[in-house]
Amino acid sequence: MRSSNILAIVGSILAITTTSTVLAQGEAENIAVPRKPEWTAQVNLAAVPNLPVRPIGSGVCENPVCDGTDNDRCFESCGNKPNSDDIYGCPKPKQWALTFDDGPSNYTAELLDMLDQANVKATFCVMGAHVRKYPEIVKRAYDAGHHIASHTYSHPHLMSLSNDEIIAEMKATEEAIVDAIGVKPSYMRPPFGEADDRVKGLMKAMGYKILLWNADPTDYNIYKEANVAAKIKATFVHALGGDDTGLNAHEDPGFISLQHDLYTQSIDQVPAIISLLRGSQYQLMTAAECLGDASPYQKDHGNSDSGAAALPSDTNINAASLPQATSSEPSASAQASSPQASVGIAEVTPNAPVASVHLPTSAAISLSFTPFTIGASCLLSFLLSLSSTML
Ligand SMILES: [Zn+2]
């Protein structure tokens, strides 16, 4: 983190800082989410459904009854109802958008080298905390013509957060991205693919489109397994072969695949994946490009140029017969059995227990109350520790 960022945080007297803990592979990554009181006032909440905050439940349930008690128990099954605005795949045949989540990381430069070599542009759904850590990597990606989208600041289960907390996740990420590349994204990918109508309403109020996916090699879950290369590539092979990916809520003929630039084992497959897709006459492009969106950045913040080539717009989405099941980005249930690894950086295992708060001090104080109740003394203690450890 740059000293200017520290000073900006410390200098904002009224800023409230919350933290959430993202479990890392090998060690916990404590992420402090900056918060400013004015952020919520900037968002028009009039059209945001007044739905209750949902506790982090047990994930996906079979045949849930989503009008009663199953709502909370079957967290993902009942919360993630696809709607016509959600983006799952590319709208035209023979289009494929590679997307990479949770970065940037210290592997992303290697991935950018691979993409440069193949002359492929991709979409990066970046975490604000990681943008603060590697702003130069985001700049390189943006300058090269890749598409930058938001993936929140600390990778929480958004449905479990209050409106204020969700807004802070997005606004803090916006600031980090604007500081790095000068523009504000207009696409966001909710962590775990989790977004109910309240979350979606908030995203729309903040100018975001919900970017999901319809091909998922579950690299987060198999990156350490034997034959990981074959297993990751199998997802692409099956999709090319016309198999149902189970994620194609809108029956899109083109694909948006999900990988994570946190796993070198997944990145290593990218050249072979590109060859495979091109061998099947697929055109590789960013998600924004396949959606015909030449300016995937919000216009209220400086330069709105995207670096993305303009393509004919064809974003009609067949909203008929939308299935209930949605994502398979690392779910709580999947992550529970995911092996831990010790990889260079603090990597994200996207199963953040946002109910607990860990201050990023060496003592790693754990507080059991909600982030909103952090007192002034704790805040001061945190800021001092942050300044001393980060500068
Ligand atoms: Zn993620």
UniProtKB/TrEMBL annotation:
Feature: compositional bias, Low complexity: 323-339
Region (Disordered): 320-339
Entry keywords, A to Z: Hydrolase, Metal-binding, Signal
Keyword Metal-binding assigned: yes
Signal sequence, start to end: 1-24
GO biological process per UniProt: carbohydrate metabolic process; fungal-type cell wall biogenesis
PANTHER family assigned to the protein according to its UniProt record, in alphabetical order: CHITIN DEACETYLASE 1-RELATED, GLYCOSYL TRANSFERASE-RELATED
Tagged with keyword Metal-binding: yes
GO molecular function, a single term: metal ion binding
The protein, known as: NodB homology domain-containing protein
Domain NodB homology: 94-285
PROSITE patterns attached to this UniProt entry: NODB (PS51677)
